[in-house]
Amino acid sequence: MSQAAARVFIVDDDERVRCALARLLRASGYHVESFDSAEALLDRADLASVPACLILDLQMPGMTGLEVQRNLDQLLPIVFLTGHGDIGSSVEAMKGGALDFLPKPVCESLLLAAVDRALKRACVEWAKRSERAELQERVNHLTRREREVMALVLTGRLNKQVASDLGAAEKTIKIHRARVMEKMKARSIVELVRLAEKVGVHAADDN
């Protein structure tokens, strides 16, 4: 999905700040959703349904920005804004994966540059998650026997070796193997290995 379809979420308890940031970002062509609290953001379903980044106030009533960051567990790239920042908070934010930590009042050019970087990262991460989800769906459509065959095929075993390991006819293993390749949409064993690694499926000898 392209950056044009991405979202910028803003969380700040100061309405004037929220509105100013939203106007700036919309004027720069971004799709923006704003929230007056961390809880309101976290109540929103499907935060990662499209590539998105988060502009997050550090100090807010209720859940703080750092608590939101820990709750999201790097689901979204975060740009922190604060009028009360200190070295300890910025270090903790960066260790937690924050992309930037900008003071209020924020420089517009620095903010726009940070958002651009954040959305580029978001698009890359979203594409990776989407690919893993699609590959997992392919794996889910394999039968138990097909998974057993795939695990052995990933070791480089030939059909007759797989047949011996599973106590089955070589002809039957050949059919299962073909179905595995078809369901996983792999054109070669090398590609099957690559796809399996992406979704965390290991060869039989690795289990």
Brief account:
The protein is α/β, with parallel strands linked by helices and 207 residues long. It has nine helices and five strands.
Can you walk me through this structure?
The protein is α/β, with parallel strands linked by helices and 207 residues long. It has 2 domains: 3-129, Response regulator (Rossmann fold, 3-Layer(aba) Sandwich); 141-206, Winged helix-like DNA-binding domain superfamily/Winged helix DNA-binding domain (Arc Repressor Mutant, subunit A). Helices cover 54% and strands 12% of the residues. It is built from 9 helices and 5 strands, in the order βαβαβαβαβααααα. The protein has helices spanning 15-27, 38-42, 65-72, 87-95, 108-140, 144-153, 159-166, 170-184, 189-198, and strands spanning 7-11, 31-35, 52-57, 78-82, 100-103. It has a 5-stranded parallel sheet, sandwiched between helices. α6 (144-153) packs across α8 and α7 packs across α8. It is elongated, with a radius of gyration of 23 Å. The chain starts with 6 loop residues before the first strand and ends in a 9-residue tail after the last helix. The mean pLDDT is 90.
Describe the protein's topology.
Layout (H helix, E strand, L loop, with lengths): L6 E5 L3 H13 L3 E5 L2 H5 L9 E6 L7 H8 L5 E5 L4 H9 L4 E4 L4 H33 L3 H10 L5 H8 L3 H15 L4 H10 L9
Parallel strand pairs: 1-2, 1-3, 3-4, 4-5
Helix pairs in contact: 6-8, 7-8
Mean pLDDT: 90
Structural class: alpha/beta
Strand order of the largest sheet: 2-1-3-4-5
What's the architecture of the largest domain in CATH terms? Answer: 3-Layer(aba) Sandwich
Order of helices and strands: EHEHEHEHEHHHHH
Structurally, the number of domains stands at 2
Name the helicity range.
40-55%
